[in-house]
Amino acid sequence: MTSRVAAAIDAAKQEGRGAFVGYLPLGFPDLQTSIDAAVTLAENGADILELGPPYSDPVMDGTVIQEATQAALAAGFRLRDTFTAVREITRRVDVPVLVMTYWNPVVQYGVDRYADDLLAAGGAGLITPDITPEAGEEWIAASRRTGLDRIFLAAPTSSDARLRLVVQNSTGFVYTVSTMGITGERAELDAAARVLVGRLRAQGAEHACVGIGISTAEQVAGVLDYADGAIVGTALVRALRDGGLDGLAETARVLASGARSSASAN
């Protein structure tokens, strides 16, 4: 089965640029606005959407995203709303939609049921930050059956053997963690990200997208000098929080300009 996510990255590459991957939490500030925000992000330059259902113990999320997800939970977000949102977003825009979810909600929902409902809603796959390929046999089987992308994370501290395992079991792209720690903007991205992408390439990775700490058009362009995609979250969530849909649209356009100015080195 053809990966829609990989196809979107390849389409950007054919235009001589890298892909802009935009993250937003679902349910913030409310479910309908989060749907409209995802559509706004797609309409203003995002090649791939990464949507995060709020979770009660978001160990990887920085302060801005944690505050947004906690507000979404307080407003009554339920797991089933994930599929409602994905269905509405994919009805309105033709951009691959990935769900970035912690693993416990998937297990509680039922792995096969989750995969089937995500596929039916038009979703493209899952990013699973807290599960490794060894522990993900059930999800790997379900994703193979449904054709959904499965995206595992690679960190600068990962061994070559670990990177090989991640590459062999990921489809769409490998989520390349730019630095150790939680998400959030940083003044300078760690040089470790560039080294890590090179190590992933050596293990056979066709698509590597870098996330955590990217917040400006200049940083997007810099990352896309060596990676296939740049993932931005905190800057977009802050823009939505402070400026609503108009503020989000403006920030998305600025960040997308960084992707357009990047040279396709891959």
Unreliable residue stretches:
none
Task: Describe the largest sheet.
Answer: 9 strands, parallel
Strand order of the largest sheet: 5-4-3-2-1-9-8-7-6
Q: Give average pLDDT, whole number.
A: 91
Question: What's the end-to-end separation, in Å?
Answer: 23 Å
Kindly report the oligomeric state of this protein: single chain
Q: Structural class of the secondary elements?
A: alpha/beta
What would you report as the Rg, rounded to the nearest angstrom? 17 Å
**What proportion of the residues is helical, as a percent range?**
40-55%
Q: Determine the number of helices (DSSP H or I, runs of at least 4 residues).
A: 11
The number of distinct β-strands equals 9
Shape, per Cα inertia axes = globular
Order of helices and strands: HEHEHHEHHEHEEHEHEHEH
The proportion of residues in beta strands is: 5-15%
Mind explaining what this structure looks like?
With 266 residues, this protein is of the alpha/beta class. It contains 11 helices and 9 strands. A 9-stranded parallel sheet has the order 5-4-3-2-1-9-8-7-6. Helix 6 (111-121) packs parallel to helix 7 (137-146) and helix 10 (217-223) crosses helix 11. The longest helix has 27 residues, at 234-260. It is globular, with a radius of gyration of 17 Å.
Strand and helix layout:
Elements: H1 4-14, E1 19-25, H2 31-43, E2 48-52, H3 63-74, H4 81-92, E3 97-100, H5 103-109, H6 111-121, E4 125-127, H7 137-146, E5 149-151, E6 153-154, H8 160-169, E7 174-177, H9 192-202, E8 208-211, H10 217-223, E9 229-232, H11 234-260
Parallel strand pairs: 1-2, 1-9, 2-3, 3-4, 4-5, 6-7, 7-8, 8-9
Helix pairs in contact: 2-4, 2-11, 4-6, 6-7, 10-11
